[in-house]
Amino acid sequence: MKNIFKKIVVLCLALLFVQNLAADEQSDLKNRFLDKINEVILIVEDKKLSKDERNRNIIRVLTPMFDFELMAKLSLGNTWRELSKENAQKFVDLYVERMKQSYSAKIDAYEDEKVEVKKIEQPQSNRIALVTDLVSKSEKLEIVYKYHKPKTKTPSKDEWLIYDVEILGVSILKTDRAQFKEFLQTKSIIELMDALAKQS
After folding, report:
1. How many Cα neighbours within 13 Å face the side chain of 192?
2. How high is the pLDDT of residue 40?
3. Among 17, 67, 111, 195, fewest CB within 10 Å belongs to which?
4. How many domains is the chain partitioned into structurally?
5. How far apart are the C-alpha atoms of 174 and 160, rounded to whole Å?
6. pLDDT at 130
7. Over the stretch 57-83, which tens digit does the pLDDT of each residue have?
8. Which CATH number characterizes residue 54's domain?
């Protein structure tokens, strides 16, 4: 009976340790996210910068947070497997440029909004969802940043990386995948890359 009791105690302590680690990791991720957001806001509010300088600085700050290669891969679904190494890299480059332009366009509409973290969800040990509100004078816009933790850390990237963003419940990744899937029903992947290149 004593042995069973000891095992239960050890198990409880182990679970508590794991929960504490997860809480610390979530707290670190939240603080790093808010630090990055504040850095972006300072750049946006710097009136001395030209639009191009502003955008370059913002992309420099945000790029380490995002797993663009995974986002590009997931957006293509099974078609990704058909790409040569050269075309896979070309598609990633085009996808990244598309994301940068989309973010730059959203920055143009910035009007003193604030970002508030509402809660943090961790459905798996290597998945975290940061649920935030983008708060303006007239409304709140819920934005969920979905992170994953790669098995191997890339030197130029953060430990946790964003692979999808949901705005009011609409996933950017799923939207891209639906659009690309529809395009590829009648056209080739090369034509898709040509279309993306024309947008940049």
Report:
1. 27
2. 87
3. 111
4. 1
5. 21
6. 93
7. 988 998 999 998 899 999 999 999 999
8. 3.10.450.710
Q: How far apart are CA 18 and CA 24, in angstroms?
A: 10
* Three-state secondary structure readout of the chain: CHHHHHHHHHHHHHHHHHHHHHHHHHHHHHHHHHHHHHHHHHHHCCCCCCHHHHHHHHHHHHHHHECHHHHHHHHHHHHHHHCCHHHHHHHHHHHHHHHHHHHHHHHHCCCCCEEEEEEEEEEECCEEEEEEEEECCCCEEEEEEEEECCCCCCCCCCCCEEEEEEECCEEHHHHHHHHHHHHHCCCCHHHHHHHHHHHC
Structural domain span for residue 92: 2-199
Rounded CA separation 144/130 (Å): 6
Half-sphere exposure at residue 48, Cβ-oriented, CA atoms within 13 angstroms:
1
How many residues are there in the chain?
200
Could you report the per-residue pLDDT of 97-137, keeping only the tens digit for each?
888 888 777 776 667 788 899 999 998 889 999 999 988 88
Q: What is the model's pTM?
A: 0.82
